[in-house]
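Hi L.,

You mentioned the student needs an example of a multi-chain input paired with its predicted structure. This one should do, with 659 residues in total across all chains.
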Amino acid sequence: MNKKKLATVWLGGCSGCHMSLLDIDERILEVAKLADIVKSPVVDGKDFPEVDIALVEGSVTSDEHLAELLHIRKNTKTLIAFGDCAAMTNVTGMRNYFDLKDVFETSYVNSISNDQEGEVPDNPYLLRLHDKVLPLQECVPVDFVIPGCPPNADTIFYVLFEFLNDRTPNLSEAKKLKYG
Amino acid sequence: MVNTDKNTILISPVTRIEGHAKITLQLNEAGEVADAKFHVNEFRGFEKFCEGRMFTEMPTITPRICGICPTSHTLASVKACDMIMGIQPTYTANLLRRLMHIGQNLSSHALSFFHLSSPDFLLGYDSDPAKRNILGVAEKFPDLARRGIRLRQFGQELSERITGKKIHIMGIVPGGMAFPLTEDNRKALLEWVPEAKETTLQAIELIKRFQDENREMVRTFAPSPTLYLGTVGPNGEHELYDGKLRFMDTDGNIIQDQVDPKNYLDFIAECSVSWSYLKYPYYKPFGFEKGIYRVGPLARLNVASQMKTPLAQKEFENYKAMCGGKPMHGTFYYHYTRLIECLSDVEDAERILNDPEVTSLHIQNFGRWNYDEGIGSSEAPRGTLFHHYKTDSTGKLLMVNLLIATGQNNPSMNQSVLEVARQYVKGDDIQEGMLNRVESTIRCYDPCLSCSTHALGQMPMQIEVLDAGGELIKSVERN
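Structure written out for the whole complex:
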């Protein structure tokens, strides 16, 4: 069997889903037998290549995330919304109740530890935050969802292992669908 | 590498670091690196969206700031809540909180060392990027990679066996803990200790050997003096969970000692900058220019007078001897100090797990809203962390201020990148290995940029080089 190509991506989130992926511990070596991890925050990689499976953690919070996600969608066979921020924005989306300007000013201008008049960061090298945080499926079609904040490591391994063996995972069995 | 123009280098994004960042290098007319800007590139706005919520929700919301050090956030948060309620955790609850925090520190440090940094030491800075990761290490050094993975697992198990969850734990509550440690779990955790100790000692041998074999590189690796901040116990001992703040100057003089964390605003101020989502904190009495300080393992060992456990103390003495009792400024020593902390963690975990009270069921004191302000701090793996809340008389949050570990290393991280870039990058002659050295400088700090409230992300890396006139001459990108 040809080795699959696997990518993991981190958009607007806390990286907890990636940490939970690492919590599969030594089973990562089993994954590595079936797939090359070609793009991930934990490996040195290049541009996002064509892949069979992409685990995408986090919400779409900015222009860069959106561009990245569109690129990923175009180059990915099975795109998996990885965790609650990707699936439904979760804590990352809690700022949606507020005006973005207020959110910025609270941290950069009105902070109690600020020494002087603060400024809201504004630089061409910085990403532009969108007014509202969106889950992945508001931006691109998503093929599968692994819920949880973060998803349980056993669930992650199960889903990966099924896809890597050309099977579609079935999360309906209660034991597999363990939240958090 | 993408060459977009003729005088700016943009390294983007930095891989194998937990966060999104870009670096811009500014060249002068001679084509030498004149300035470096480290752009931290994500922002989620916790300080705003937590306003209006009940303070008791914070220990559940704030771990989501960072998936790598969630427990440190929970602890700082819950200590702020303890203060708002005016209650103290029970003796057993403090033991369990300490254990949880040891687990946090250990798993994060193991990740930093084995998963993210050891590929550089074991495979080489200039080795094939496709293999320069933990799986590449596993191919060449299977036993060591396996041990590293398991050391991180031990840290995570400490969390799971106490509260049922490895990440974003739920069991640490104001007044103590929600779940006791069962006898079965206590035994299971104790069984990990010998292996964890052995792995840590092996890692320490590895880093010491690397330091010996690469003396010149290690010595000249971003050695700029800064001030240091860390938490210490009543006798100046190394402390991660609960203690007082100590500030040290560049020569090793203690300039503030036994400062209650709730007075942090007297000593720390921050300024925001236009080109990064991460603010620039500094030691207030010295002002922005002279007040650059560092936090994290290097800072904690620099400020500490002693370690709490015997093996770590022995290693600590070796470390102190290396710099003649002065603070160690070389950024590369973050790795060594991180491992000395791991050793201390494992020894301390063993001590706590053998405390007869650790499985007691008296784990929580109960209270309610009493005060309108709470400040909590903890030593996150990357450094001192502060949570500061103000509430109305119903306990609803009016103000949230978070001062995050990586944020406090931001000014010196920037400085260190500049130093390394000056050494390794000349004009537009930029090799893949040189870029990796700039990245690995940042990696020394192990910045978890998602945890920086004023920042977040994954660190694919982009370096741009600007010529003396500010025109972009080169852009190097790695996603």
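You could point out the following to them. Chain A touches chain B through 65 residues (CB under 8 Å). The helical segments of chain A are 16-22, 27-34, 63-75, 84-88, 100-108, 153-164.

Best wishes,
N.
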